[in-house]
């Protein structure tokens, strides 16, 4: 077993007790719990169905730690909900590249990226499964509203552990969906603003 798996499991068990941790957007949904592990046979079946190999570190997480749940942004998608994308060509006007699902008629025949983390709307958090970015994590937007951003982490486990470490240390890290306690406190929707405008706390989402 990769030693990082045990380390991540330990850190994940402690994070909900860390009162000075950063705010992570999907915590209310997954409560820092992972779903059941998948079997090696399930991973093999997914690979066979899609004619790919799952990056090793990502596959280890699914098989040895958990198959869904806790993760950056809104959390880790179950493998059966993950979809393959290709990156679009750079538009002539220099605007950011988007992504298309592989079954879309406009999808290019290029390197493949697997959508594994839920971000909401048309934002995507993906892992490279073919080409030079295999195993690397990146974020982007399907419609090209913002440019793709490749993480400096060398694989999924390093990226995931960075999320836990930066959250524990109370850091701001937009690339991991983290907002520090200081930023939360001074935000227009934070506790200071609510104290000045107590009726805000009674408002409901539209």
How would you describe what is shown here?
By secondary structure, the chain is an alpha+beta fold. The protein contains seven helices and eight strands, in the order H-E-H-H-H-E-E-E-E-E-E-H-E-H-H. The chain has helices spanning 3-15, 27-30, 40-50, 56-64, 156-168, 181-186, 191-196, and strands at 23-24, 83-87, 99-101, 112-117, 123-128, 137-141, 149-150, 178-179. The strands form two sheets. A six-stranded antiparallel beta sheet has the order 3-2-4-5-6-7, with no helix packed on it. The protein has a two-stranded antiparallel sheet with strand order 1-8. The longest helix has 13 residues, at 3-15. Residues 197-206 have low confidence and may be disordered.
Cα end-to-end separation: 46 Å
**DSSP strand count:** 8
| Uncertain residue segments | 197-206
Major sheet: order of its strands? 3-2-4-5-6-7
Main pleated-sheet profile: 6 strands, antiparallel
Shape: globular
Return the average pLDDT rounded to an integer. Answer: 91
Describe the secondary structure blueprint for this structure:
Layout: H1 3-15, E1 23-24, H2 27-30, H3 40-50, H4 56-64, E2 83-87, E3 99-101, E4 112-117, E5 123-128, E6 137-141, E7 149-150, H5 156-168, E8 178-179, H6 181-186, H7 191-196
Helix pairs in contact: 1-5
What is the compact description of this entry?
It contains seven helices and eight strands; from the N terminus they run αβαααββββββαβαα.
Short key terms for the protein model shown above:
206 residues, alpha+beta, six-stranded antiparallel beta sheet, 8 strands, 30% helix, globular
